């Protein structure tokens, strides 16, 4: 049996911005972070600053870890109604990677051009001034 998702409007959430009732909207999901305020590594102030409103941009600006993103799912209590949803960038975009882009080529190519230019300059100097 699938659990029904509770829908909220921005209007009904905007007053839920206190230590006793702190709600955040992140990527159109609604999260009750009241019990998480004291545990938040960045302090409760950063959560209370955006409580009752959309915190998607500040959340993404901090580049939360995948563990933090998984942890937040336990605080999800619903989603915004369709009319109040915002089009956001891809949810949880990857900010960086350890992969080397293919267009950079091999590592040796990064020093071949400077070496060739240095060799050409040396030969030109010896030819002209020797």
Question: If you had to describe this structure to a student in words, what would you say it looks like?
Answer:
There is one protein chain. The chain has a domain at 7-84: Roll (Flavocytochrome B2, Chain A, domain 1). A 5-stranded mixed sheet has the order 1-5-4-3-2. Helices cover 35% and strands 15% of the residues. It is built from 5 helices and 5 strands; from the N terminus they run E-H-E-E-E-H-H-H-E-H. With 130 residues, it is an alpha+beta fold. Keywords: Electron transport, Endoplasmic reticulum, Heme, Iron, Membrane, Metal-binding, Microsome, Transmembrane, Transmembrane helix, Transport.
Spatial strand arrangement across the major sheet:
1-5-4-3-2
Average pLDDT for all residues: 85
Content of β-strand: 5-15%
Number of DSSP E strands: 5
- What would CATH call the architecture of the domain at 7-84? Roll
Q: What is the name of the CATH class of the domain at 7-84? A: Alpha Beta
> Termini distance?
89 Å
CATH superfamily annotation of the domain at 7-84: Cytochrome b5-like heme/steroid binding domain
The radius of gyration computed from the alpha-carbon positions, rounded to a whole number of angstroms, is 26 Å
